[in-house]
């Protein structure tokens, strides 16, 4: 991973600042609560949710266990259907490959489908440095790009912006990048969307090169899948002559049939819809329909290192639905930026320190950016036990131990007396001095007692080695106090 | 060492602890949700399409040409894009100028066309989705994307399945597929849903009774 956001302070400071920002908190709260409620309804519609979730988990686990085999199979199928496959060990290599491919076309601008992988490697900046302008075409990404801002949510990257702010950004910045905002633009969502439509259509219609990621890659057929809502994805995938897709090596599913699981769980978990408005699948190139040159860049960038960790590797099951962000009490208050990575929220807290290592203060503090309430695990459509990985990573940071970095086994030194531990302690303190975070965390903790670790991580490990941890009470003390006025009104 | 070898080597070393183990994939989930008659499945498709803000029409096969002509006239469409294999009779009554789907036409040309009429490959009732597979009566992917108005004809009940698993079984992964559930939409601004950011802002689906047509023909 190409480092943290530039100049990013560790989670506690960043979160502290965010919590003080009222607009941000209001926007976030509204958004996460809206999606959360809708999602629960969409999930309740399918009676076999538990079975779909289990199947999704197993498909991904099975794939990861045979990842070498499936990668080779995928390569063969993509090549057989007319595509070209490139392998990139890290961000720099991926950026160099894409830059080279764009230069070969002679073009100096590209249109982009929203993609976490290209954000992770900092592709736009790398292209810019080579004189190539990359236009983000997802409405939220456009807002982020025009606002010279950073994304704060996996699914709705501009979730921290309200309509008034968006209007101001459009009015101020659109003319810098192409068609200016219409005269007298108001802040109604319909007008703002129309302004974006006009601004971007110009770019779609003349684009010769499109860049995308993919939600899934099917090993046996060589098919790539992009799931979206707006149609900007379809524009980028079908109008240009050349299509370059940058995809993490963990995005494979073995067979065409496996899509039946994820095309049911992903839309419901992510936008709370039965099905997202558009899903595109393509297998290599098709004569006279869509791009005639297709390049797939397979990205490692810390994924094989993550795979080497027996507990942590489950993070690679993630299908980036963002459901865990919307239920996280810490995310809701701290906001996505505090995580210092393109992957915010609970999944970011376990994915970023694994992809990037824990050398930096922010990465070392991320596993502490959680109250371990377990809500993220409950909503995850591929059943990633995020609390388990958080505890595991905390232990790794404080105690040290063997890890794999860039393919090499190294022994991580215990963080005692180091920046990491200080960061960790500050993160813990931060959570404890923000009663709202703690309270929500505790309530959920009571409901999820079953999945709690029985041993303490880190320095407490020796203590809990010979003792059982006290069970979490059925009701947090604070709630009991509030409900009963400190016992004055009886206990029930 | 090439990056290919480097990555594959790292992956293999990372998996050293899992030698011989496997996670069998169990498919205990349902093939479809609920027990419905054929009519009820078509009814559910119509309902879910409408729920996702597609405009749904139903007609008998014999009335399809008139229905399509009426829809194009109501929209005030002067030009309509036509895939090469579209049943010619479908647009026999339409007053609209027909523009064939050609590989040479530029995106800018497509942008000036008012409407597009296509058939589909399959429709999914449980999700309210129509799937196009680029067949001759559906044309290139871009023709259902650039014009602002898309009319899609679904033959019911032949082309209707209940669920996503049933749809995937029917589809050919080698063809480029477009799954469409309602018109283009975004919720990026304070999560207010707005239709039509980049794709067609209006999606009209005609459910045409294909069984009735067999009766008429026989
Ligand atoms: S960890 Fe699970 S819930 Fe979170 S984004 Fe990934 S798949 Fe979704």
UniProtKB/TrEMBL annotation, chain A:
Keyword Nuclease assigned: no
Record flagged with keyword Hydrolase: no
Renumbered residue ranges of the record's region Disordered: 441-492
Originating species: Streptomyces sviceus (strain ATCC 29083 / DSM 924 / JCM 4929 / NBRC 13980 / NCIMB 11184 / NRRL 5439 / UC 5370)
UniProt cross-references to SUPFAM superfamilies, sorted A to Z: 4Fe-4S ferredoxins, NagB/RpiA/CoA transferase-like
GO molecular function, one term: metal ion binding
Domain 4Fe-4S ferredoxin-type: 315-384
Every Lactate utilization protein B C-terminal domain range: 393-484
InterPro entries associated with the record: 4Fe4S_Fe-S-bd, 4Fe4S_Fe_S_CS, FTHF_cligase-like_sf, Helical_ferredxn, LUD_dom, LutB/LldF, LutB_C, NagB/RpiA_transferase-like
Swiss-Prot/TrEMBL keywords: 4Fe-4S, Electron transport, Iron, Iron-sulfur, Metal-binding, Repeat, Transport
A Pfam short name: LUD_dom
Boundaries of every LUD domain copy: 73-299
Protein's name according to its UniProt entry: Iron-sulfur cluster-binding protein
GO BP term, pick one: lactate metabolic process
TrEMBL record, chain B:
InterPro entries xrefs: FTHF_cligase-like_sf, LUD_dom, NagB/RpiA_transferase-like
Residues passing through the membrane, by range: none
Pfam families on file: LUD_dom
Domain LUD: 43-208
Domain of life, per lineage: Bacteria
Protein name per Swiss-Prot or TrEMBL: LUD domain-containing protein
